[in-house]
Automatic annotation (TrEMBL):
SUPFAM superfamilies: Nucleic acid-binding proteins. This is Replication protein A 70 kDa DNA-binding subunit B/D first OB fold domain-containing protein. It comes from the Eukaryota. Residues 5-108 form the Replication protein A 70 kDa DNA-binding subunit B/D first OB fold domain. InterPro entries: NA-bd_OB-fold, RFA1B/D_OB_1st. Coiled coil: none annotated. Pfam families: DUF223.
């Protein structure tokens, strides 16, 4: 008997017995910083063929059952999970529901699929919306450094700082485009905006993503301008030649 499928947009609260076919975009550990970094859950971002994004969660008590099967970028069939209302705090998707794994959840990687499921998905916010989100804890948006006309500071700590240093040192040159996901915006003394990294934060340079590649191509494209001397061609250059100078990282032990 063929499995029955549903899509993420049609999920409603309760136990879901039908299967969804999704790609894991990213997954990470959620830890309780007030309890010496105790693991609370494995969190993930799931996307389907309609580009619907839903956050998934594996409780810490079940992480050994599922962790070894999690591969970023792979496609899975998922059924027998619980559908819950999305947490209104620190949201990574705009969907009203989230997926929670349980002991009876069936979770299988599939080698091929006839469905066209996106391989990346980002939620960028303009500077004005980032300011509105600051200190609210409502969302963890993404940003593209070097496309804003204002100065901000992106702060990273602990393992995130180590990962960034390793990535930056191994890149071999100054990146022109820096994409940072899942940041927590804060306004501190003197009204300065800080974009704090979280356990879900990832950093991408230049052409590592389609979005970054498109932004880089825009920098490299010639622009024709009308002047009093006639038509002149110039190359678009960002106002900041080194976006990495706006990244700060601190490793705490």
């Amino acid at each position: 008997m063929a499995n029955s499928y549903t899509v993420l947009a049609d999920l409603s609260a309760g136990r879901c017995s039908t299967a969804v076919e999704v790609r894991i975009l990213r997954f990470w550990e959620a830890k309780n910083i007030n309890k010496r970094g105790q693991l609370m859950s494995l969190e993930m971002l799931l996307i389907d063929e309609h580009s619907t994004l839903v956050q998934g969660s594996v409780p810490a008590s079940l992480q050994l059952m599922f962790r070894g099967r999690l591969t970023e970028g792979s496609v899975y069939t998922l059924s027998g999970f619980d559908v819950t209302r999305s947490n209104p705090k620190f949201r990574l998707s705009d969907g009203p529901v989230s997926i929670r794994f349980n002991e009876g959840t069936a979770f299988e990687k599939i080698a091929t699929t006839s469905r066209i499921i996106p391989t990346e998905h980002f939620r960028f916010r303009p500077y004005e919306q980032i300011l509105e989100l600051a200190n609210t804890g409502k969302q963890l948006p993404g940003i593209i450094l070097d496309l804003w006309d204002v100065d901000v500071c992106v702060s990273m700590f602990d393992s995130l700082a180590l990962a960034f240093h390793s990535k930056f040192d191994g890149y071999g040159r100054e990146p022109r485009i820096v994409l940072v996901t899942a940041i927590n915006p804060k306004i501190v003394s003197a009204g300065k905006l800080y974009l704090n990294g979280t356990s879900a934060t990832r950093v991408f340079f230049d052409c590592e993503t389609t979005v970054g590649k498109e932004a880089l191509n825009r920098q490299d494209c010639p622009v024709v301008e009308q002047t009093r001397e006639g038509l002149q061609q110039r190359w678009f250059m960002p106002k900041r030649s080194s976006p990495s100078q706006y990244l700060s990282s601190t490793t705490l032990f």
